Each structure stands twice: as C-alpha cells, then as structure tokens.
Amino acid sequence: MSKVKMKREELVKFYVAFKEFDQSVEPKFSFFITRNLQHLTDEFESAKAAEQATHPKPQFQEFQQKHLTLMREYVEFGTDGNPLIDATTRFIFKDGVGQVFEEKVDELTNLYTEDIALQEKAYDSLVEIMQEEIEIEVLQIPYSLFPSTVHLGHDIHNLFTKYFCKDSMEDIEKYIMSSIES
After folding, report:
1. Which of 130, 137, 172, 178 has the lowest CB atom count within 10 Å?
2. SS in 3 state form for 41-55?
3. For the segment 99-108, what is each residue's pLDDT rounded down to a tens digit?
4. What pTM was estimated for this model as a whole?
C-alpha cells in the first residue's frame, strides 16, 4: 500500500469509475479494484453526504420555480424547448420585455436574498471540500496489469497513471510504445 495525496474530487471520480469496472476482467486487476474501493469508500461516502447537504432547500426551490416561470413568460425559447441566448450568452427576450424581466427578477431576488445566500454558501463549502487535498492509502499496480479491454476517459486515465501505477511515466510510455509496435 502507498500513501498518495489527491483532491477529494479526484477520489470521487476514481470511485465512480472503479465501481463501473467489470470485475471479471482479470483476477489481479479485480483484486486491485476491490482493495482500492475499500480504501476509497469512507471518503466517497463523506463527499456524497456533503453533496447531499447542498441540495436546495424548499425556499430556494420556490425561488427557482418562480424564476423559471418568469423566464417562460418573457424569454424566447427555441424549438428544442431551451431558452435562446445571444452571442454574449444573454437571454433573447420577447419583443420589448427585457427591462421588465430584469426588474421582476430583481424583485424576486430581493424576496429570496437570504435563501439565495444560504444556497451559494452551501455550494461554496462543497467546492472547498471537493478541492481539499487528502492523503489516502491505495494499492498500486504495474501499468502492464491494466487490462487492454478496459477503457477510461482521458482525464481518468491520466489520474490513474499518476496515483495508482507503480511505474514511472517514462516506464509507462515505454510499455505503451512496445504494445503499439507488437
């Protein structure tokens, strides 16, 4: 086992990716996945609880619903049902109602100032928690044991080689090049 430092959001990405792996791929790799899932579970569950705590409270949901109602009344929508936006990512309003919409949104925002602030604070706290660097024990394996049938997204693959491989980046590159040549 090796201790590595990673951001909590990276740990969450790994946990989700590891849970999706086909455990019947290869015994050593299956063992590697299972052991790491055991080590990542507590941190993942803590992060999940923090995320659930940011779920919008009823008052903020009420604000969102009223804001959406205003949008439906004043903003142009495309055939796909989404609001139309211009090149500067501002809403395109029905003729002559842009100022009225802005005033109504300001009024609505003023009614829910506390609820909006609480939701923003909860979200900011979650971002802080997810960006925190943590130290965790992981089981590392040689890159050569990584099954060729397992495909990760580019970002997860890069993080995998950084945290879960015993090999140096130079050795990984040599292994990959020799695999391509043969």
Report:
1. 178
2. HHHHHHHHHHHHHCC
3. 899 999 999 9
4. 0.72
